[in-house]
Design goal:
Largest sheet: 5 strands, mixed
Order of helices and strands: HEEHHHEHEHEHH
Helix content: 40-55%
Distance between the termini: 34 Å
């Protein structure tokens, strides 16, 4: 992992830790354009009573209304493999690259994204995996609610 990869994944992980501390689901994301974070977010389904505020969606929302040309030059960092909804947003805005902290806890739509030309890099970060393992152990009902079981 390059230094910038490390920095940006750490920022996504900090978002996930904030979400966990708030009583929510510990998944965080940042969107990077030209070497700087333009959007950051964490899963706020619990905190906001939302059905759509996953970490990636929150980061997109916080990046705001930008031209498609900007999103087509971004990298999205996320602590967990993106679900179908978040993958759809990645495809919709043409984000060409996604760096995934870990996909052992949940395998999202990586294959679908790849089939649409998105470069997926799975880092298999031990800290991301440990946070999800702790969450699933301590709050299994909430985890099952979020992934639809």
């Amino acid at each position: 992992m390059t230094a910038s990869h490390t920095e940006f994944l750490a920022a996504a992980r900090a978002e996930a830790e904030t979400g966990f501390a708030e009583g929510g689901i510990p998944i965080g994301s940042v969107i990077v354009h030209d070497g700087r974070i333009i959007g950051r977010g964490h899963n706020r389904r619990v905190q906001r009573g939302s059905v759509i505020l996953h970490g990636e969606m929150d980061a997109l929302e916080n990046a705001g209304r930008l031209s498609a040309a900007v999103y087509r030059e971004c990298t999205l960092y996320t602590t967990l493999s993106p679900c179908p909804m978040c993958s759809g947003a990645i495809a919709l805005y043409g984000i060409p690259r996604v760096v995934v902290g870990e996909n052992r806890s949940f395998m999202g739509e990586e294959g679908w994204l790849r089939s649409r030309g998105v470069l997926i890099e799975v880092v298999d970060d031990p800290a991301c995996a440990a946070l999800m393992e702790r969450f699933m152990r301590e709050r299994p009902g909430l985890w099952n609610e979020d992934i639809g079981r």
